[in-house]
Structure formats: structure tokens, C-alpha cells
Amino acid sequence: MTDDVLLTFNAGSSTLKIGIFELTGAQAINVGRGKIDFDQAPLSLRYTVGPNHYEKSIKGDNGENFVSVVAETLDHMLAHLPGRLRAVAHRVVHGGMAFQRATLLDDAGIEQIEKLIPLAPLHQPQALRAIRSIETLRSDVRQVASFDTAFHSSQSDLVRRLAIPRGMHDDGVRRYGFHGLSYKYISSRLRQIDPTAAKGKVIACHLGSGASLCAMEDGVSRDTSMGFSALDGIPMATRPGWLDVGALLYLMRGGMRQPERIEDFLYHECGLLGVSGISGDTRVLLADTRPEAAEAIDLFCLRIAGEIGRLCATISGLDAIVFTAGIGENQPQIRARIAQRLQWLGIKIDENANNRNLTSINAATSTAKLFVIPTDEEQVIADEAMALIT
Question: Which domains does the chain have, with CATH numbers?
């Protein structure tokens, strides 16, 4: 390894995911990954560096003692990394209108991210805690923020507009889109795999517990399923996706009046879990024989296929579909059901290639190419940081 190390922090509500990169010239080379699961007790840091696996019990918690979690994590990791820590780069969900690209963090930048908490009240504070912790523990280390919304800043004003008074749009109530770091990686990786397809009209499907779609032309975001918040678009594990606001008004009149209760309901009680009453995990639902499980899966695939149709209208055609993230990369049954609903577009899947999770899974007679490409958000975060610190 070289003398310099870069860490990426992806702080979620229940996990802290860490990428470990060595800096070679102008490149960030991934050499390991780590994770702390805050739902486990006692806390444990598990990570790998090359062929070596490490596990360390961690004191502290996911609340007021979070800084001690970061302190122990750094102490243990850096003891097994021969290089000096040069930078920590963070995934920040919301950049609002202020951040359209990655940025080196200073006091003003951190304050601006803090002002965006109302736009992402469940996600933004997690990243800020990690940023503040590094600031407290290692003020000598440079910090960079990468934003999930930034990739979509290329979308037209028309696409980003909600049908509300213009002043509200100007104040920031607009469609932002998320999973941008994943889509940026897919755009770059597809260019390596199939340059011709990458230059065309592509719809990428980031299908995980959080899920969205993005329409791209020549690798540039033109439209996406998620809008003002990460609740919008297709159904997710526990989030509803598109929801008639009239239904929400109805629930509010029925007694669900507190914003905190509504927020918890929308983020944790809907989606596949709500429809099935069983689980928000598609693996569990696919293995379950109850009709409620089947209906949840069918709704998931129906809405994805429908959203692909809508996105085709934005980019006026379709040359390729990319499946990525946990579900998209690993569940052939879901991909096959989506493709089946898109036969009217001339899309045909190669069953054998699909079942083997190959990179190219379309039949020879398909009007659009179909790809399975694993995503790597940590690599994008590291690359964006390198561009700023070198």
C-alpha cells in the first residue's frame, strides 16, 4: 500500500458502511470494506483489508455516543493500515439546490448541509453526525461530501417541476431524484461494457430496499422516478412510492395528524411490507406461498414496468435497461417478471443468461439490450474525493 489512505463513510439510520481505499497517483484503489450494524448488541466493527478479516467490539451507540464509535473505528482500522489517513469522504443524501457536485467541506459547507435537514429528515442527520465526528477527532483530515441528488441536476426544469405554484418551485419544492451515486457508477461502467449502448437511451433500475429508476441519454440523467423525497416513485421495501396525496389527507382526517407519525408510517410501514403484511424483503416474499406475498411482488414488478414506460416518453425511446443493486443484481425472477410486462416494447429476456446473472441477459431478438451490472457507490465517492484533494 501507499502512504495515503482514504475512507468513505456511508452513514445510514441503522448501519455505518466504510470503504477503504489506497491512493496511488490520482487513483483510489479499493482494498477493503467495513460495516457496523447498529441493530446488533453489543456493537461490532467487521471489515476486510485485502485477504485479512478483522472484527472488533465497539463501545458507544447510535445516539449521543456516536463520536466514540467513530473514534474506536478509526483507531482500530488505522492500526491495520500502514498509510496515513489523508481524507474521509461521505455520502450525503440531499444536496438541495446548493450542491450540484461533490465538495470539500468547511464550516460553511457543513452549515449548508445542515440547512437541508428538512428535505431529508431521516437521512441527512446521519451523514452530519459522521462529518462532525471526524471534525472533532481528526481536524487535520480533509473531508469531502458526495451527494445522491447531484447526478440528477442535469435534468431540465420541466422534468423537475411539480404542478404547484411557481414560487414554491423557486423555493426548492421540486423533484430532485436520488441514488445518483449509483447511477453515476452505472453510467461509467456501461461505457466500458458497451460504449454504443451507453451513448443511447438507457433506463437504469436501482432495485434494493430503497429503489428507483433513472432515464439517461449518453450517460446523462434526464428523468428519474424519485421526486422531492426518497418516498416517491415505485414501491420499496417499506416505502409506498407514488401515493395519491388525497389518501394521505384521508388518513390525516382519520387521526394520523402528527408529522412524526406520518413520517414513520410512510418510511417504515408501507411498500412491500404493507401490501404483504409479511415482509419488505423480496427474497422472503418470493419464497412465501401466500397470495399476499405474490401480490406484493406482482405490484412491485407492475409499477417498475409502468415507470419504464413513463421514462421512455421522457427520452423518446429505449436502447437498454440496466438492473443493479441488491434485487436488480441477484434476483432473476424479478428481472424476468419485469421483462415479461415489457414485451409490448419488443423486450425479450434470455432465460438462461438471466438465471445465471450474466452481464448481458437480453435475447438476440430483443429490441433493447438488457444488462445486469453491480453498482459501487463507494468507488464513486472515492473518485470524487480524489478529484478534489489532488
Answer: 4-147 (3.30.420.40), 195-372 (3.30.420.40)
- Tell how strand 43-49 and strand 52-58 pair up: antiparallel
pLDDT in tens, 342-388: 999 999 999 999 999 999 999 999 999 999 999 999 999 999 999 99
- 173-208 pLDDT, tens digit per residue, is 999 999 999 999 999 999 999 999 999 999 999 999
Q: Within its chain, how far is the Cα of 359 from the centroid?
A: 21
State how far the Cα of 274 lies from the Cα of 270, in Å rounded to an integer.
Answer: 4
- Residues annotated catalytic, as ranges: 148
Contact assessment for residue 386 and residue 31, using Cβ atoms and an 8 Å cutoff: no
Binding residues: 10, 17, 91, 206-210, 281-283, 326-330, 377
Cβ contacts of residue 349 below 8 Å, gap of 6+? 335, 336, 339, 340, 361, 362, 363, 366, 370
DSSP, collapsed to helix, strand or coil, labels residue 222 as strand
Residues annotated in the binding site for Mg(2+), as ranges? 10, 377
The b/e string for 65-88 (b: 16+ C-beta within 10 A; e otherwise) is: ebbebbbbbbebbeeebebebbbb
